[in-house]
Amino acid sequence: MSTAAVRVSHSAQAVRPFRKPPKVRKFLKRDENGLPVPHVRNLIVRDTHPCRLMDHYYTTLQDNLMYMTYNHESGTPPPPRQIRLTYDPNDPYTKNRYNPPVGGSQAGKKPAPPTTSENVVRLEKIVIHSMIKEAITNRSNLLGLIAAFRAMSGETEGGGGRPSSDGVQIVKGKKNVGGWMRPGLPVGAKVELKGPKMYEFLGTLVEFVLPRIREFPGIVMPPASSTMKSPSGVAGVVSFGLPPEAMGYFPQIEVNLDSYPKSYGMHIHFVTNAVGIGAQNRARALVSGFQIPFARK
Hints:
Layout: H1 3-14, E1 29-30, E2 36-37, H2 52-69, E3 123-131, H3 142-153, E4 168-172, E5 186-193, H4 196-209, E6 219-221, E7 237-242, H5 251-254, E8 266-272, H6 279-288, E9 294-296
Parallel strand pairs: 6-9
Antiparallel strand pairs: 1-2, 3-5, 3-8, 4-5, 7-8
C-alpha cells in the first residue's frame, strides 16, 4: 500500500463520527420548583478573581476613614444619661399604660460608639428595590422587573451554594392604602447584595451607569441647616434613586434591552454599620470614597 493510501485511510478514521451517547439510566430528581437537582451536593462556587473595590477599601479607604472620623476621648467615658419615663413603672395604676420617655423619642439622640479599628465605617449591603403600580391589577407585570434585577445583580435564591443569598424577593403590601393597596398584594421587587457581588454592582454603577446619565449632579444632600439628630441622620444609610432610562446603561441589560417590556426606575440604598449621631456623614464619606458624587441643594 502506498504512502498516500495510508494517509487517506488514517484521515478517514480521524473524521469518523463519534459513538452515540450512553442512555440516561437515572434521571435527576427535581425540587419543588421543577428544576433538576444535581448529584453533587454542597456545591459552593468560590470567587474566580479578586474584587478590585474590596481591595481598595481594605488597603486604602479604611485607613483614610479611620483618620477622617476618629474622635479622641481621654479618660473613662461618662455613663449614659438615665432616661426618665412619663409614668412610674412601679405604679400599679400605670403598669399597662403606654409609657414614653420624657422629651420625646431618643432615636436621634443616640451617641456614636467610641472610635476603634474594629468599628470603622464599612459597607454591609446594597439594597435595590422598585415598585410597579401596574402589578396591583396584574402580577405578571413583575416578571420584567424580576428578570432585570436578576441580570443586574447576578443573584438567585441559593445561587452558588450560598444559603444567605435570597435572590430577587417580591415586595408585598403591609396595610390598606386608599382602597387600592391591600395587605399581601405584590407591588414590587427588591434584591440584597452582599460580599463580592455588592462590590461588583458598585463598580458597574460607578463606571458605566452614572457617567452616562445626562445632567446627573450627584446624590442630592439636604441643606446645611438641616439637623442631623433625626432617625435618618443616625441610621447610616445613603439612599438615592435612578430614572427608568438608567436601567439601559447597565451592561447586563444593554446587550439585550429589547427582551425587557420596558425600563424601570429603582431606589438604591447603601447600608453601612455607622450608628449614632453623625452616622449619616460617616456613611457619605464612605460612599464618596467609591467615586459616587454628592451635591448640596
